[in-house]
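ok new one. same drill as before - structure tokens go in, u give me an amino acid for every spot. 309 of them this time. try not to just spam alanines like last time pls lmao
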């Protein structure tokens, strides 16, 4: 019956990277229709239609969908889902809010943070902070799941799918309302989409010293990440945290500076393609996952690297 992929939509813009990566993750399941729900999303729908691997774009353009509130989008999906065997979405904060509600409405289970679609019924997802991967077989009539997209290659452009308006009347939410978005402004790449991430840990010792990490990151055109210890100590803002209770990243290059490599940190970065660790303790667990390790004092090594770059 095919797959319905709920596109990542921010404001009126398509979250192209997450949507394109999700398309690659779903490639083995047959035809994929993409739902673009939002307010003023004609351009986003056209952009989605140009992605390779899209059969059809359904566009639900209505102010009720402007903020991706769970209630109106789940109501819409509950109607659309009857025509599909699978409803999936990148595991964004919005989708992690919408799809469980949809699953509840349809009385089926939801699978979150799927990292591999094994076959039409079988999905792999991390458990225990990424220390184990469980393979789940679903007998539900409609499989509903969110995808961790970081490690998938984004589907390219060059597609030319048809864009079809959704013939469903939008219902505004009666039980929740959007109040405000507080969006961090940064000239650096977005942490979860960056090709290079430089992260600092507790060893930095202060917010002022964390500038060493930022300086190296800026030389590399990288996003800045941090361990929870660095965030909890006030050296780095909360939205930089990488790990089990932070962000999940899988860049081409991850540089961990003064980070011990606790399992909760590894849970958020161990799928990175190349991991470089700088730590003065040669026994630090981070070296077990590192491709390149430098046993050194970061206060000497980082300024030297930044200077050389
Ligand atoms: P530390 O463990 O203190 O390590 C500092 C490292 O710096 C050490 O290896 C030391 O050798 C090295 N060092 C010290 N001085 C220098 C120097 N001058 N030069 C070079 N190296 C130096 N953590 C996360 O990061 N993300 C999470 O999302 C997260 N979620 C958690 C969820 C739960 C439920 C729990 C219980 C914990 C979670 N944690 C998380 C915390 C995690 O367990 C660790 O406490 C944390 O990752 C440690 O941060 P750190 O490596 O910066 O600090």
């Amino acid at each position: 019956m095919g797959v319905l992929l709920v596109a990542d939509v921010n404001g009126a813009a398509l979250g192209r990277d997450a949507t394109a990566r999700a398309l690659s993750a779903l490639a083995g399941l047959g035809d994929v229709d993409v739902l673009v729900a939002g307010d003023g999303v004609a351009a986003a729908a056209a952009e989605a239609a140009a992605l390779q691997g899209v059969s059809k774009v359904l566009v639900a353009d209505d102010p009720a969908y402007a903020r991706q509130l769970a209630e109106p989008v789940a109501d819409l999906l509950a109607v659309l889902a009857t025509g599909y065997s699978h409803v999936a979405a990148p595991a964004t904060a919005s989708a992690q809010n919408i799809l469980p509600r949809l699953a509840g409405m349809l009385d089926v289970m939801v699978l979150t943070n799927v990292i591999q679609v094994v076959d039409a019924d079988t999905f792999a997802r991390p458990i225990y902070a990424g220390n184990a991967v469980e393979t789940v077989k679903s007998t539900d009539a409609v499989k509903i799941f969110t995808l961790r997209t970081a490690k998938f290659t984004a589907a390219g452009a060059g597609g030319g799918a048809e864009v079809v308006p959704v013939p469903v009347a939008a219902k505004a939410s009666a039980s929740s309302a959007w109040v405000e978005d507080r969006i961090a402004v940064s000239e650096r790449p977005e942490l979860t989409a960056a090709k290079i991430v430089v992260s600092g840990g507790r060893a930095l010792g202060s917010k002022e010293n964390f500038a060493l990490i930022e300086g190296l990151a800026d030389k590399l055109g990288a996003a800045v990440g941090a361990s929870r210890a660095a965030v909890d100590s006030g050296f780095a803002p909360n939205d930089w945290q990488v790990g089990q209770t932070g962000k999940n990243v899988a860049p081409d290059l991850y540089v961990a500076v003064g980070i011990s490599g606790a399992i909760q940190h590894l849970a958020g970065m161990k799928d990175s393609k190349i991991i470089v660790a700088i730590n003065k303790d040669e026994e630090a667990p981070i070296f077990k996952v590192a491709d390149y390790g430098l046993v050194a004092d970061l206060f000497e090594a980082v300024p030297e690297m930044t200077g050389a770059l």
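The mean pLDDT is 95. and btw Residues 3-165 form a domain with the Rossmann fold fold (CATH 3.40.50.620).
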